[in-house]
Amino acid sequence: MNGVPRAELIATERLRLEPLSVHHAREMVPVLAGTAIYRHIGGTAPTAQELAARYAGQSVGASPDGREAWLNWIIREQGAAVGFVQATVAVGAPCPTAYVAWVVGEDFQGRGIATEAARALLGWLLPRTGGPVAAYIAPGNLASTGVARKLGLAGSGQLDEDGEELWRSATPAG
């Protein structure tokens, strides 16, 4: 990957992945308001102000030192925000690992949205990076491990400092 890729609109038959912007904050508050999703990802439901601050930083598209591309999208189904997907990729690395994540609001889970959105993200991302894909998933998060398996990722047994397992592909997944 030679430069910093910028998030672009991605569409599937059912979903639109819209590049993240600060204006999404108010709309995402009810999507992220449930408590069950935080059982696995930690934290609590954010306020509109907290999301606006977070999105202001994320939507810049790169880390302050320019070493990472921060790529974030809001997932839309029939025009309504239902969750988000994101990728963090090292800039300038010859075959960088893309660290991906997905979150779908409680009211929209169980319908394949996370899998469809993550596949669309990888379909857009892999031609731009050429590298392997990885995700950190909390033990016991069966929904996310199911998505990871459908993306061709496998658990490595390696845990990070938060106790999340590294799931990865040796080759690009799709």
What does this structure look like?
With 174 residues, the protein is of the alpha+beta class. It is globular, with a radius of gyration of 15 Å. 32% of the residues are buried. Helices cover 28% and strands 29% of the residues. The chain has a domain at 10-94 and 101-131: 3-Layer(aba) Sandwich (Aminopeptidase), CATH 3.40.630. Strands 1-2-3-4-5-6-8-7 form an eight-stranded mixed sheet, sandwiched between helices. It has five helices and eight strands. The chain has helices spanning 25-31, 38-41, 48-58, 113-129, 142-150; strands at 10-11, 15-19, 68-77, 80-90, 98-104, 133-137, 154-159, 165-168. The longest helix is centred in the C-terminal third of the chain and has 17 residues, at 113-129.
Summarize the structure.
28% of the residues lie in helices and 29% in strands. The protein has five helices and eight strands, in the order ββαααβββαβαββ. Helix 4 links the parallel strand 5 (98-104) and strand 6 (133-137).
